[in-house]
Description:
The protein has helices at residues 2-41, 47-67. By secondary structure, it is mainly alpha-helical. It has a domain at 23-68. Helix 1 packs antiparallel against helix 2. The model has no long low-confidence stretch (mean pLDDT 89).
Amino acid sequence: MKELDEPMESFIISVSLKNEITKCINGIGGILNSLVDILFEINIIDSETSLLIKVLIDGAVLGIIGLL
Length: 68
């Protein structure tokens, strides 16, 4: 029975690790989007550029998560 428990524990650890990495990547994307908001608010970039950068960030985050 011990032989069956080890692969299951390994799978659970793998899924847990993937979930934590996904949370970290989402957090980084959120921070980058907030920085874009700040740049927009202090008139460094315009609204169209802000939207474009946010779409690129979100696409990159989803792409990276998709690779996991």
